[in-house]
Amino acid sequence: xxxxxxxxxxxxxxxxxxxxxxxxxxxxxxxxxxxxxxxxxxxxxxxxxxxxxxxxxxxxxxxxxxxxxxxxxxxxxxxxxxxxxxxxxxxxxxx
Length: 95
Known about the structure:
Blueprint: E1 2-4, E2 9-14, E3 22-27, E4 30-31, E5 38-43, E6 46-51, E7 60-68, E8 71-82
Parallel strand pairs: 1-8
Antiparallel strand pairs: 2-6, 3-4, 3-7, 5-6, 7-8
């Protein structure tokens, strides 16, 4: 998945369990749940990670891990950030 730099990026998954699973998000195996650059929510069985302003530092492998006393599940994806700056190349005109 590719996200343009400077824009929002939402990642989400549906999860349910009894007891309700604990949700942990990771980027390159580093926990994001307490990182203020990311907004993590879990509402009505939908777990969401929001990146408010995608930058080059956000590129990497993202993983969500859900676990409760009965087991665990995980899902992962790779995010690439893309520069959306307009590049204009000068063109030489023959005289």
